[in-house]
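Rotation project, supervised by the postdoc (A.L.). Task for the rotation student: set up a whole-complex structure prediction and record inputs and outputs verbatim in this book. Inputs entered:
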Amino acid sequence: MKYGDKVGLYNDASQCIAEDVPIEALSPFYNPYMKDVLDLFKRTAFVNLSKLQSCLKEGKAGWETVIGQDECKMPWYGRDLPIVEHAEEIADRIRDKIGKFGDGEDSVVVMADTIIVKIPREVMGIFASRDPVYTWTMVALCQAIAEIFKIDPNTDLDGCNMLKAVVFGRYPQSITFSPGAPVSGFLKPSNVVDGLGAEYSGITVNHIVAMVNKRTMDGLALASILEEAAQWEMGNAVGWYERYNLLGYAYEGFNANNLVLDLVKENRAGMIMDVVHSTVRRAIEDKVIKVKKKFASGYKMYATDNYPLWNAYELAGTTAAVIVNCGAMRAGQAAPSVLAYINDGFTIETGGLPDPDGGRMEGVGIGFAFYTHSIYGGAGPGAYTFDHVILRGSGFIQPPIVAGMCLDSGTQLFSPEMTSSAFFKLRDMFPLLQNPLEKVAEAAEQIKGEIKKG
Amino acid sequence: MAEKTKSEYVPNIYPGKDTVSARRKKLWDKSRPLLKYRSIAEDDITQLLSHRAVRSAYVSVHPPLEELIEPYDPIKHIVVPTPGTRAGDRIRFIQMSDSFHLPSIAPFGRQRLYFSRFRGIDTVVYSGREILEMRERDLEKATKMLLETEIFNPGRSALKGITVHGHSLRLDENGLMFDARRRYIYDKDSGEVVYIKDQMGNVLDVPVPVGPPLSEEDCKKLCLTYSWDTQPYKARTELFEMMSRSTKMRVMAGFNPEMINESM
Amino acid sequence: MGEELSEEERIKRFVEERKKKAGEERTKESGMSARERDYTRELYRASQKFIDIEKGRDIYQTMKEIWGAEPLYEVDEKMYHRGGYRQSIRKKEFIDAGKQIAIKRGLPSYSRAVGLPVGQRMLEPMPVGKWGITIEQDDSHHMNNTAIQQLNDDIKRTVIMNLDLAHRMLQVRVGKEVTPETLNFYMETLQHTMGAGAVAQEHMNEVNPYLVKDAWAKIITGSDEIMDGLDQRYYIHIDELFHPDRAKALKEAIGDSIWVVFRVPTLAMRMGDGECTGRWAAMQNTMAFISAYQLSGEHVISDLAYAFKHARVIHMGDKLWGSRVRGRNEIGGIPDGFIPDIIQCERDLPLMPYVEYMTQDDAAASKAMTRMSEGIGGIAAMLDNTLWLGFYMSGGIGFSNTVATSALSGGANEDVLSEFSNLGAKYLRGKLIPAKWDIMKVMLNMVATYVIETYEKFPTLAELHWGGAHKTSIMGTVGAGVSAMLTGSSTMGLWAGNYTIASAMKEGWLRTGWAGQEIQDHMGMPYLCSFRPEEGNLTEMHGENYPMHSFSAGHGNQRAAANYGAMMGRGSAWCLSPVVKVAFADPHLAFDFRRPRYCIAKAGIKEFMPDGERTAITPACDILDRGILKDTMKEIPF
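Outputs recorded:
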């Protein structure tokens, strides 16, 4: 065990799931549940056969629009093939082409009209990128359909390329695939990820909201697993920043010591600044900060010897404030304001201690508040990806946004139901994704002994 | 975890003991009520906001919460929704603009006031204006406070839903803040500022008086910003010490969060 | 509220209540702070004494000229009575043009019948820099201003290649000698190929020379010996263009290397993009080599091409990230450290740290400050606000232009900065301040509050910089520039700029700029010295493609002030690259990088002749009327 910090982990009913957990047990390197989730996100592709079939029938491919997807049509190349009916057969053929490189784990599964492909660990281990999720699945899929429906340049010259177009969109004339293409993965293809190590951060807010079925604290947990992993991959948690990140996500994402929920309950009918005051009071009581100096006006300046922990308290306070404010309004649009402006509250209240994430949160939050309310781009919070240029500046801002969107009662145009309907189903397909908050805690409990031994 | 002690914590709210700092402390402390300066009828507020016809029913964006079937989430049962949320009201806005010259409130002043006194808010701060979005009936209630109390100077704060330009301009001949859409005028007979258009610039059937503009003396007394001729900013030692410490702490925290210590 | 009461009673009760409460409040306050009130009264009295001093400031005169009214008076009695858009010549022209276009094309065009009524306030004239030229706001829109366009074009059409590798290859692998004669012949050939003139193949399509009159190439070297052997038309005369001390420093830094700076035709770059520049230049350069040195389609040619296209080439900008993808040599890719090298405003000034200027005399120090404002206002602000954010990122809605315009306006910035020079001279006695926050903050707070008070005292200045965005942009620039000049540290400059906006301005006025304008200032602090991959780094290594800079406006001039200020603060002859510094001293360039605001002002009154015109091939054009090279090297004193 490297650090002395230990926390208790609580579920969203404020019940303690794990006590006395070293913070290392909440690291993606040790926590087995986190590892499983990351593995699922990294290796899984989805083939939407209904969409494939209808696009192929209508001759629809290569669209650019996210919603509608209706601007490109070539009905003369359309092919009416009963693809969904042949789901099992297509899956078998994909399994033959891909599964054989694995260790026997069933890598291809049919669920209703969707084929789920998990690229074997052995394959991912050899390759430098995780792009086989797309490349292998797409090529194997095209071959499987061609084999079953006997499509080749002799039998159906245009059909070959129509199939390719439906699956690949305009790639490689375009550098990536059409949005909402029949083959998708959890993460973006690597060539459209801006910035080193940001892969796990490429996910859309609404996707997470859908995967946790709008359960707020689960949303915080799942978002934290992904963003925490991304922060590690980016190098943002190495050395000096490791404990800072572990504590930050423990309190913000995994309800350490029930702090977030305590603050929410205490201020269930309160205002945003009430949460700031509760957080400061709690930090004083827990001896995280103390009065350093008192000015003539009575204004007190606080000091800390444990900024990573104070930062974690601030993050918990910020998250609680988002929940209190978005919960009162039941609207996701209210999250950015809190993230933008609560920070000054902490700074002024403590006489200048660094605000959440040392000022990163404030900068990013202000940008987010602006771009979710202006003509310069944006959309509602749910349509953002975690790695969006406006959000990527702080790794702690993503989970509270997810919390805000979980609390939305249907006020958003780009709602989870609209942008991420497929992801609601994933929760049923992958029981792993259910109750992530409790599962992280249970996994931490499982390994805490080993970590303590070192 | 260190052993807990019961603290005698009293929120700081803001540094300094000059009159401007005292104003800030007052406005941002919800335990201190704001003085009411004028009364504006609820129907007039509805008109000024221009989101619904006077006395018409509120439009809903979703069914009342009680009728909504939602997946299980304990948090949704902990946080108390506002009345507008409970009813499923649309989210609508008020946008206020505040003059640069001795304003009784300014954009970040509004934000901090909203954060301290309102629930269920969405706000964005700009240089001259600030938008506040809430569920419609909650918004109307909040608007009452914004227009009736000491923070509203009819001469130097204004509803500007669109075309917000003007906060930094010189005042007009009657001492009012500029408005390119001339939503409000100074009624010389009554000595009051009268809105002849709603916040979006549509002409009102019946003008809405909002009271006389504050005198220069009152402007100075109620001013929320430091100014060379009221409370000079450069003399605010407590505030400057806090700001200077905060900027250095942020730089150190960004470099290595473990480097922060009690001596800083 | 008492709903049962009649309206009249309610009002009566309310008024009584209000009077009572106000009275109580007043008694409470006067009881509590009698001394404080005395102090305040004293202050009002004292402040009156300073009015005359305020009237002696440059800014007073400038404001008086602009507004034709008392600059210290906070009421504009003519507001709403200025005749709407008719008070502006330009707007009237636009209305006429809009009508004509609508009639001719049978489709509405510009029309003041839609949208808001323009001109309720005064549409004030704008004096640019200290050049004595006044333009209208609309004249500084990049679509209306040929100089801003040419600034954009002249950077994007520039690429620099090194010939040393190519020369070694000629000598070692092909056995050709490289002599002053061959070099001169190659350069003559190059002037021909740069305009797409054919040299090796017969029956090629060639370009009308009038269209490419702005295509040329020049040698940059630090070697007097090499320059002595060259035809004097073919190299950039460092000794004549720079102050002798600067010339010496630059020549030493460049050494015996031979670089060539290429200017690709404006029209070619505009038809393509910045990325075209390197390709055009490499192709035409290789052709000139082939022709001048009699090479064949032999294997070495591919190495030559590789050297010019990849191995020994300097682009003015990097490729951009995928989410805002553009190729090299576009504005978004320029590293911030190149911008002070592109700016030439300081090049005739003696090479010494700024604090030494201050010890000389007030005029010398103000001159240095004026040059900084000229460069930052005329170039950095245009690149950031007008071009990158106002045009590339948001398509030219005109708001960012007005922010950049605040950096153009004369009198205001210079006034504050020269006041500061005098102040600094008194305190610093010629010594750089160590780049430490605890020391710097004292001076910085003084400067920040001085600027803040200037806005408070001059309602006309507040009206000129009518958006918080304008003031924020100025505040950040002054904070960063002053701190960088005093410390010689770009990082200290950046920190100071961030602090000035995120703390000093915000807490004083409780407002900064448009909603997103503090983004960089808050993130800037934790990022300042961070070793994380997407944070930190020298300000010289930042740029518009640095993620947090890419979408938040009003800060390019702050970063440029940090870099350019640090360069002048240290007393160094360049910021990041001595070769780039020399490349933009080229007097043949249409945009004068030494007098950027002058060019922009001239363009505002339609007296700036840009390159890249197509009139030589458009109908009914007398080509002799066009294509005449402008006068070069015409010196106009600062």
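Student's summary: The longest strand of chain B covers residues 91-98.
Supervisor addendum: The first helix of chain B runs from residue 19 to 27.
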